[in-house]
Structure formats: structure tokens, C-alpha cells
Amino acid sequence: MAFLEIRNLKKRFGSTQVLHGINFSMEEGEAVAVIGSSGGGKTTFLRCLNFLEMADEGTIRIEGGFAFDAAETYTPAQIRAMRLKMGLVFQSFNLFPQYTALENIYLPMQLRTIEQLKKEIPNRRSRRAAINRAQEENRARAQELLASVGLAQKAENYPCQLSGGQQQRVAIARALSQTPAVLCFDEPTSALDPELTGEVLRVIKDLKDKGCTLLVVTHEMEFARKVADRVVFVADGLIEEEGTPEEIFRNPRSPKTAAFLQHTVNQL
Ligand SMILES: Nc1ncnc2c1ncn2[C@@H]1O[C@H](COP(=O)(O)OP(=O)(O)OP(=O)(O)O)[C@@H](O)[C@H]1O
Ligand SMILES: [Mg+2]
């Protein structure tokens, strides 16, 4: 079995079938770029992988993590546990505006710790002591994560005091704080001015070099070509074609892939 294995994933909104049965797998440490035309179902695919939408059919398995089957029902706690294995960085950063950069990373960590300790330590007084100890550890870890995306000096800044590129790097650090098995990105640079995309793409490249498993929906063809191990072209709710960047960009087999690439290159 592959590290991440997705079989026959289907999703419908009302009468519109959006995902028609996606089969996809990836190995640990792989970086996969997902490309495709608008409306093809890329975001819906990522949202189903992160359980922000529940697939109607299909299975999602992470080695040593979880096995989801759309035919089964899951409790909210089970869904939260599965969601933790799959990180997601959104196009629009989605930081909490009322919290500092550090708090944006640290507070969700602390909430997860409290939830965990509630299960592990029934005695309230012992639990409180453990929560207090975890607080310092979580703050230190959040500070380390901020430093790893080059923002050690911005811990006390609020999102409105950060550039778009900096906000997106905080969002990446926050996603990393849950140590996901796979980190997914949905067009992480498309809301940024062109001069700010480089700093975010460099952070993603660093993560790949550190061995993180990455699934990146992107319209940055240069990034897909240079950084991804594999490129997946999604069209009409299906994987139309996949291969190495060389295979997809130099010699696409499917006419749909060729037409998309032709059109995208012409727009540049
Ligand atoms: N919550 C929803 N309710 C109804 N239809 C939806 C919903 N979310 C997505 N869709 C539809 O599903 C289809 C795929 O949308 P999706 O956002 O997954 O495409 P995409 O490939 O990410 O496009 P883009 O490149 O523009 O981001 C679209 O036709 C969209 O209108
Ligand atoms: Mg999208």
C-alpha cells in the first residue's frame, strides 16, 4: 500500500457531480503538484482529503494513520483526529485577525493539547498542572515554527501588520504545528502580489527538501515543473493524466492536458 491511497473518490453538490471517482496515491516524502482548469474539482478534492467536505463514495487511507470509507459514519471526534493527519493551507491564509502571529500557531496547539489531556488525565488538578507545563512547550514550539518560515522577529505582529507573503508563511507554520502526514496547499500564492510569491514558494521548496509529503494545487507552472516530483492534471473531476514534470510539460499524452498547457502558457 502507498503512504496515501485514495480510491474512487466521488463528491456531488446537489445534482452536480464534481468528483467522478478519483484514484490517487503518493509515497512518503513525495511532492505532487495538482494542476487543472478552473472548476475542475481541485479544491473540492483537497477539501474531501481534509474532511471539510465529506466524500459521497470512496476511501482515503494513510499508512499508520487512518482509513476512511465514505460508506461508514464517523463521530466529530474521529473526523477531527483524521483531519489532524492532513494539513491544509488555504489560498486566503485564514489567520485569526485578533491573535498575533505566535498566537495563531500556539493557540490551536494548546486547544489540541487540552483535548488530549482531558482524555488522558481524569483528575482535574493533575490535568491543570499538565496543561500549564504543555503551555510553555507549545509556545516554544510555535516560536521555532515561526523561525523555520523566517518570521522569528514577527511573533508579536497581528495579521494586519504582516504582508500577504508573511501571513501565508504564518499559515504554513500553523499547519505544520499539527505535524500532518501530508501537507496540502490550495493555490498558496494566488492571492499574493507577484513579488511576494517567491518567499512562499521557497518555504514550500524547503519543506520538500526536509522530506515533508506535499500535495500542492498550483497555477505556478514553473514551481510545478521545478519542485514537484510528479504532476497531476485534473479535469472534470477526474485525474486526466499524471507523470513527471518532464512527461507532463514536454510530452502530454492527453489532448486535454495539452490544450490546458497551451492555454496557460499563452496567458503568461
Ligand atoms: N459548496 C459547493 N456547493 C455547490 N457547488 C460547489 C461547491 N463547491 C464547489 N462547487 C462546484 O464544484 C465545481 C468544482 O469546484 P472547485 O472549487 O473544486 O474547482 P477548482 O478546480 O478548485 O477551481 P479553481 O481553479 O477555480 O479554484 C465547480 O463547478 C463549483 O461550482
Ligand atoms: Mg480551487
How does the SSE layout of this entry go?
Layout: E1 4-13, E2 16-26, E3 31-35, H1 42-49, E4 57-62, E5 66-69, H2 76-85, E6 86-89, H3 101-120, H4 124-148, H5 164-176, E7 182-186, H6 194-209, E8 214-217, H7 221-227, E9 230-235, E10 238-243, H8 245-250, H9 255-267
Parallel strand pairs: 3-8, 3-9, 6-7, 7-8
Antiparallel strand pairs: 1-2, 1-4, 4-5, 9-10
Bound molecules: adenosine-5'-triphosphate and magnesium ion.
Summary tags:
9 helices; binds magnesium ion; binds adenosine-5'-triphosphate; 4-stranded antiparallel β-sheet; Rossmann fold; alpha/beta; 44% helix
Structure description:
This protein has helices spanning 42-49, 76-85, 101-120, 124-148, 164-176, 194-209, 221-227, 245-250, 255-267, and strands at residues 4-13, 16-26, 31-35, 57-62, 66-69, 86-89, 182-186, 214-217, 230-235, 238-243. Helix 3 (101-120) packs antiparallel against helix 4 (124-148). A hairpin with a 2-residue loop joins strand 9 (230-235) and strand 10 (238-243). It folds into two domains: 4-96 and 179-267, 3-Layer(aba) Sandwich (Rossmann fold), CATH 3.40.50; 99-157, no CATH class. The longest helix has 25 residues, at 124-148. The strands form two sheets. The chain has a six-stranded mixed beta sheet with strand order 6-7-8-3-9-10, sandwiched between helices. Strands 2-1-4-5 form a four-stranded antiparallel beta sheet, with helices on one face. The protein is built from nine helices and ten strands. It starts with a strand and ends with a helix. By secondary structure, it is α/β, with parallel strands linked by helices. Magnesium ion binds at residues 42-43, 186.
